Amino acid sequence: MKTTIAKLNEFVGQEVQLSGWVYHSRHSGKVAFIVLRDGTGLCQCVIEKGKVADELFDQLIRLGQESSLSITGIVRVEPRSPGGYELAVSDAQIICPTQDYPITPKEHGTDFLMKNRHLHLRSQRPWCIGRIRHTVIDAIRQFFNDNGFTLVDTPIFTAAAGESEQTLFAVDYFGKPMFLSQTGQLYLECAAMSFGRVYCFGPTFRAEKSKTRRHLTEFWMVEPEVAYIDLPGLLELAENFVTHIVQRVLKDNRAELETIGADTAHLETITPPFVRLTYTEATEILTSQRTVDFMAQQLETFKKQKTEIEKQIAEIETAEKAGGLKQWQKDKNAKLLIDLRAELAELEVKIENNPKHAQLAAQFQWGKDLGGSDETIISLMHDKPVFVTHYPRDAKAFYMKTDRGNPKVVENFDLLAPAGFGEIIGGSVREDDYQYLLNRIHEEGYDPENYSWYLDLRKYGSVPHGGFGLGVERTVAWITGERHIRQCIAFPRLMDNVCI
Ligand code: 4AD
Ligand code: MG
Questions:
Q1: How many CA atoms within 13 Å lie on the side-chain side of 228?
Q2: Best residue among 221, 223, 400 to mutate for probing ligand 1, ranked by most atoms within 8 Å of CB
Q3: Is the pLDDT of residue 335 over 90?
Q4: Rounded to two decimals, what is the model's pTM?
Q5: What is the rounded CA–CA span in Å between residue 422 and residue 317?
Q6: What is the pLDDT of residue 331?
Q7: CB atoms within 10 A of CB 444
Q8: Terminal CA-CA length for the chain
């Protein structure tokens, strides 16, 4: 019976055939262990000499990492095997024997792994993250489909800026200039006047000259848009939406979360209501003594953690130097060292940045957009996601509705994920008054001709409406605890690196 590793629980005591790749193997004279990877999980396959033909045994023990093969055997419960089951092997067909696979359990730098992204995708961490991303996307669609939203696919070729003209990618469209879409929002607003509740979900392009861990030039964004909604209504929609995504991942991907060491206890706490702060309150926090103390305390913690990790690394290195370790101990140490050195490098960056970020926060002036480090500080101070609302009008996009009670600010929000992660959603109520909108278009120096259809929405049956955009990679990075969002999409595009 052909099956997959994920379904082995249905076949205990029976003979099955699995097809996959060698993830890891070791052998003594009489018994060989191949940990097989088949795309659904890992399974230890035990090959005893005498139970398979001698010639096959010899071939199997020579298979290198990532050799492909089908293995037949009886399924046994084995708590020490990665998925809880193992295979007592009776036969195997080798499909492509492989030697010298470039990615080994040894330490590899990010550049090397990105150049080898076509192979790196098979490694455990990218696999876990890919599975979690799949659930996130499925949960997104499920949420909107179950809540009365109609999917509208908005175009990727666009004639006008949706966000900022500085981050447009221009393309030559049969001799005419066109741009790759920064957002589906403006089109979605048209559709909301037809269907009421709509969403679009697709690739988004930003020529952002930022080399930060939060920026891709091509990323996936889901955007809902709702007719007859106000800011409190939007915040409620956003918190229910994010909670739904996190709960689905906890339900479907607990094993993957645990394998990559994600903080599941923290994810369990993600329930409504989230924290609500106005931009003005956020700036007051940033420039307060509370932030000075908080940053000082952070620095202390980072330094303590650094000392602790340095100690652990030194201990492993001493053990390695002393020699006499078994191969499996060396492999385990190699893996541990990769993790510890990565953690150390991260802490060193944090220690270096802490005083700079503290200074930026202390000098923050009302009117500026919140910077990455400011968002980090606000989100680190709260255990739950934080909505920051009512940003200064001049720092934000032209389409956001001016707050009629305080025309210096707009009715918008950003959602900051906790644990220092920062913005995962940006949204707003849209300016629904023709004259206000036209003025903003002029102020930005945009050509109203390019926005005539967008202005029409404010002429014919204009209604209060709004929506938001959630970045998939940033959401996956936050949920998985992955520092850099390039690991949260199969083939990342960054300003200075497009992998393969
Ligand atoms: O805040 P942004 O720019 O909002 C919009 O595009 C609105 N038009 C959305 C709307 O109201 N319909 O982007 C929304 C989200 C951000 O919060 C972030 O998660 C993600 O998109 N994002 C990026 N993700 C990766 N790389 C980038 N360069 C990103 N820029 C934005
Ligand atoms: Mg934003």
A1: 5
A2: 221
A3: no
A4: 0.94
A5: 36
A6: 76
A7: 14
A8: 38
Q: Is the peptide bond before 273 cis (omega within 30 degrees of 0)?
A: yes
pLDDT-derived band at 326, boundaries 50, 70, 90? confident
Quote the CA–CA distance of 96 and 99 in Å, as a whole number: 10
pLDDT for res 163:
81
71 lines ligand 1 (CB under 6 A): no
For the chain, helix (H) and strand (E) counts, in that order, are 15, 16
How many A from CA of 388 to the centre of ligand 2? 11
Spatial contact of 184 and 223, defined as CB atoms under 8 Å apart: yes
Check if 427 has its Cβ closer than 6 Å to any atom of ligand 1.
yes
Q: Are strands 42-48 and 85-96 parallel, antiparallel or unpaired?
A: parallel
CA of residue 389 to ligand 2 center, whole Å: 12
Sign of CA dihedral 228, 231, 232, 236: positive
User: Residue 464 belongs to what H/E stretch?
Assistant: none
Predicted confidence (pLDDT) per residue in 150-185, tens digit:
999 999 999 887 788 889 999 999 999 999 999 999
Span of 135-139, 166-170, 390-394 with lowest mean pLDDT: 166-170
Distance (Å) from CA 106 to ligand 1 centroid: 36
Q: Is the CB of 63 under 6 A from ligand 1?
A: no
Atom of ligand 1 minimally distant from the CA of 427? 11
Is 466's pLDDT higher than 90?
yes
Nearest to 487 by CA among 495, 479, 476: 476
Check residue 309 and report its DSSP letter.
H
Closest CA to 132 of 294, 221, 5, 261: 261
Residue with tokens 């009365």: 148
